Amino acid sequence: MIPSIENLNKEIKNCLYCGNDDQNNTLILQKNPLVKMIKCSICKLAYANQMPNEIFLKNLYDPKIYKSNLTNNSDKTKKLAQKIYNELEFKHKNIKILDYGGGNGELSKQIIELFNKNNINAESLVVDIYNSLKGEKIYFKSVEEFKFDKENFDIVLASAVLEHLPNFINILENLLSKVANNGYFYCRTPWEFELSKLIKFYKIKWPRHLYDIGGDFWVNFFKNKNDFNIVLSETSVTEISKKNTLRYFMAQFLKSISKFEFYLKINKLSLPKWPFVGGWDLIVRKND
Ligand SMILES: [Zn+2]
Fold this sequence. Notes:
The protein is of the alpha/beta class.
């Protein structure tokens, strides 16, 4: 299902983050009507030049049709939970998690289990469009119900969700404002723009993905945020299934070059140059 002309909002002429109007680096998302993804030459955010409207997105994410892919795969989620957990350091023993777009809460559940093993209490508030939760110490609020009010969280998770939101920058800023001092923000985003240009059969998941948000954007973005430090910035766990052998090995190969780039660097948090990775993991910590 792709948006028709009635389902598209008006064309975006300036970068939605930095306002730059250079629209030269593009990728075709759909031909009729034409929608392109534009990669900003300044801040490196890639965005659809026309966003689908609210009605279209509501249908697209109808719970009867839509199932989130990562949260249904508990092995992959377990690996991811461990990766995040390894970077965390807390002095207190009651951890509050906000899991924005957390689906059935699987990632929260796995992280809570890791805390519990180390005698630390943890609970999570999952915010999503509908409730499909299972597990203890996990609570639900719908996107409409959830207010970005005074309550802060030790960990804010945004795993594979930001790229789906038309107002991504706004939500991102709101989520960052919910991170307690010495707390963490984790996100996983697709970095597929250059990969889709390089390999014909590798397609951006339009219209579900409205943005492509790579390691290059994240490093630039957090350079301007003095109250956050990057803790981890690297390729994410692969999303490609092993069933498609050629695609899987190609993805692994391209990713390994990114890992090699980081291996060679002394400063692991500098701007990543190799963009053919598929997805990015980022953890930042808020200063005291
Ligand atoms: Zn920009």
